[in-house]
Amino acid sequence: MPFLPSSAHPLPRHIAIIMDGNGRWARQRFLPRIVGHRQGVASLRRCVQACAARGVQALTVFAFSSENWRRPPDEVSGLMGLMGKSLASEVPALQEAGVRLRFIGQLNALAEGLQAALAQAEAQTASGQRMTLNVCLNYGGRWDIVQAAARLAARGETITEEALGQALSLACSPDPDLLIRTGGEQRISNFLLWQCAYSELFFSDRLWPDFDEAALDEALAAYAARERRFGKTSEQVQPPVQPQDGQAC
Ligand code: IPE
Ligand code: IPE
Ligand code: MG
Q1: Nearest CA to 103 among 125, 75, 130?
Q2: Full residue range of the structural domain in which residue 141 is found
Q3: Quick one: which of 174, 152, 179, 177 has its CA closest to 163?
Q4: What's the pLDDT tens digit per position in 8-63?
Q5: Which has fewest Cβ within 10 Å: 39, 82, 97, 172?
Q6: How remote is the CA of residue 181 from the centroid of ligand 2, in Å?
Q7: How many structural domains is the chain composed of?
Q8: 64 lines ligand 1 (CB under 6 A)
Q9: Phi and psi (nearest 5°) for 111?
Q10: Residues that bind Mg(2+), according to the entry (predicted)?
């Protein structure tokens, strides 16, 4: 049964995912790594549909990190080719489902043809109201903080927490409530360093191509059972227990 949110079991408004494990998924099957990445796209399609169906407002996924350029050139070019192909195959369904696509990262370092395709996909889905899908491409959390600080400095603005937060590349979405990483590693790998300051972390041993709806619901249930205190005490965030009629207090 899909996860059912309630006031006692809230749904994260914004989920961020480090989609890790494509290469190992392929290697386990003696297949080239790119086959794992293709399966990763299929897994993302399922995950987007499942998140939208459950009422998640924003989903942010790590598709290519600023460090992933260090991979063998054929894997990098395979991944870039897959991005372009996936746009062509996925955008019509996203448009239909009311999902707005946004690309986050240092996009000007990507091939011009790909940049144009990204801009076109954003424009085609701009009216989507159901959910926003932020795809982080050539993204690094340190880069994001530096570009935000540089923007403020160029405008001669004072650097405050609020101003910096507004200058970050994900300022249009609330901070992620839940950060999921698949593939068994328990690290952030330079993802949303600023924005995940208070996110609940969920690490799954499943490889990303195997991360299905049941695995998502497991993460949602774990999130719902967490107590988010934001520095306060448990007593401060828990609603007081009401004594029932006729019972001695
Ligand atoms: C994540 O899967 C996808 C990208 C980084 C592009 P990996 O390719 O890192 O998979 P593993 O970690 O090698 O299994
Ligand atoms: C993080 O995965 C980046 C993406 C999922 C796009 P990596 O596989 O690159 O992370 P590390 O290098 O193992 O930390
Ligand atoms: Mg990896």
Answers
A1: 125
A2: 25-211
A3: 152
A4: 679 999 999 999 999 999 999 999 999 999 999 999 999 999 999 999 999 999 99
A5: 172
A6: 10
A7: 1
A8: yes
A9: -60, 145
A10: 20, 200
